[in-house]
Request: fold
Amino acid sequence: GIQVEQSPPDLILQEGANSTLRCNFSDSVNNLQWFHQNPWGQLINLFYIPSGTKQNGRLSATTVATERYSLLYISSSQTTDSGVYFCAVMATSNTGKLIFGQGTTLQVKP
Amino acid sequence: DTGVSQDPRHKITKRGQNVTFRCDPISEHNRLYWYRQTLGQGPEFLTYFQNEAQLEKSRLLSDRFSAERPKGSFSTLEIQRTEQGDSAMYLCASSKGVGYTFGSGTRLTVV
Reply:
């Protein structure tokens, strides 16, 4: 099955700093989503981005499908950005389920 | 509509007991998914439904696990003869198109 690798596994930032999270995947995808899991465990959908670039406030994401990676940018980080960020993909060969990476744990210090 | 609802939020059970969790998806969403998440890991796919049809089951879903979505609305996930290894967060999600919406999960602890 498709493999999803995220890097870095852990990231500590000072409030106000910028960061880039990466997601590599091993096969063609027709669905890629970024999620934020807050400290209470709730998964929040940030972006649906199988290709191209999207922006939402301080967050933006870019997926280069031909090179099988996606990037999530966080600018001017805030303590509320802390949590785990997951990339999840659906292989083109399988129209059913999203496969999640292991996540990047972000801690933003005041 | 207030999103995807899961009940209960927490469940502590003794090893060997049966447990059942419920998920109420967003009403117009025709797809419903169950995932399991253990500490420090990403969610792992268990099974999904399109309307009332169960279309795929992971090999993680042993014969002690069963899921139903009888009228294409809410779904239940039952675990029979629970084992300590079943302790995890059980997440439900629903979708109509491409974006998933997750519930808050049911945290199961088997003692």
Observations:
- Chain B has no helices and eleven strands.
- Chain B has a mean pLDDT of 94.
- The radius of gyration of chain B is 13 Å.
